[in-house]
Amino acid sequence: DAGITQSPRHKVTETGTPVTLRCHQTENHRYMYWYRQDPGHGLRLIHYSYGVKDTDKGEVSDGYSVSRSKTEDFLLTLESATSSQTSVYFCAISEEWGANYGYTFGSGTRLTVV
Amino acid sequence: DQQVKQNSPSLSVQEGRISILNCDYTNSMFDYFLWYKKYPAEGPTFLISISSIKDKNEDGRFTVFLNKSAKHLSLHIVPSQPGDSAVYFCAASVRGGSEKLVFGKGTKLTVNP
């Protein structure tokens, strides 16, 4: 399997607290993505990165920020967690830009905001 | 506006029979389509893809059909096995440019022994 790990795997946090999720890859892939999966919504793109310090917004970016200071790490931060951000978060990587090169997903982080 | 639609949230079939999962899209610019499979507590994994220059792509028990005029694609699994029970996501993209993968909501397939 591709070397992509997400941490933590599970987290429960309180409303209003900051939360950072980590995605770490050992494939040296240029492109990294954060998705959230919710019942009835499928997978929705939050943010993505096309290189170190190069990031952009996806379709559901409000309330989230990202950082990529190294090729291997892509961090997703919820500045002030809300109950609507309870979800399963998936990180994905791809070697080249474009769907035909395929996305490899991590195992996910289940976040519960209480 | 949902660009990739999987209108069946769930599908149940008997082992050995054919499973047909459907996907519709609205963006005529999409020219590359993929299916991902997802087991509980795991990330999605790539299953099969098709380019818009083809109308069929086959990989073992899995075949994807594309009908561009109807903006419709389907995934056929023959024969279905209990291990195929998972959520299947249809995804679409425009090659090149700045487009990313757009996913449908998923269809949960249950294959009964």
Q: How would you describe the overall organization of this protein?
A:
The complex is a heterodimer of chains A (about 110) and B (about 110). Chain A is built from no helices and 11 strands. Chain A is an all-beta fold and about 110 residues long. In chain A, the strands form 2 sheets. In chain A, strands 2, 4, 5, 6, 9, 10 and 11 form a 7-stranded mixed β-sheet that branches. A 4-stranded antiparallel β-sheet of chain A has the order 1-3-8-7, with no helix packed on it. In chain A, a hairpin with a 2-residue loop joins strand 7 and strand 8. The N and C termini of chain A lie far apart (about 35 Å). Chain B is mainly beta. Chain B has no helices and 11 strands. In chain B, strands 2, 4, 5, 9, 10 and 11 form a 6-stranded mixed β-sheet that branches. In chain B, strands 1-3-8-7-6 form a 5-stranded antiparallel β-sheet, with no helix packed on it. Classes of the chains: A mainly beta (about 110), B mainly beta (about 110).
Shape of chain A: globular
Distance between the termini of chain B: 38 Å
Largest sheet of chain A: 7 strands, mixed
List the secondary-structure elements of chain B in sequence, H or E: EEEEEEEEEEE
| Individual helix count of chain B | 0
Radius of gyration of chain A: 13 Å
N→C terminal distance of chain A: 34 Å
Silhouette of chain B: globular
- Averaged pLDDT of chain A: 92
* Major sheet details of chain B: 6 strands, mixed
Percent strand of chain A equals over 45%
Mean of pLDDT of chain B: 92
* Helix content range of chain B: under 10%
Low-confidence stretches of chain B: none
Estimate the helix proportion of chain A, in percent.
under 10%
Strand content of chain B: over 45%
| Radius of gyration of CA atoms of chain B, rounded to a whole number | 13 Å
Task: Note the quaternary state here.
Answer: heterodimer
Number of strands of chain A: 11
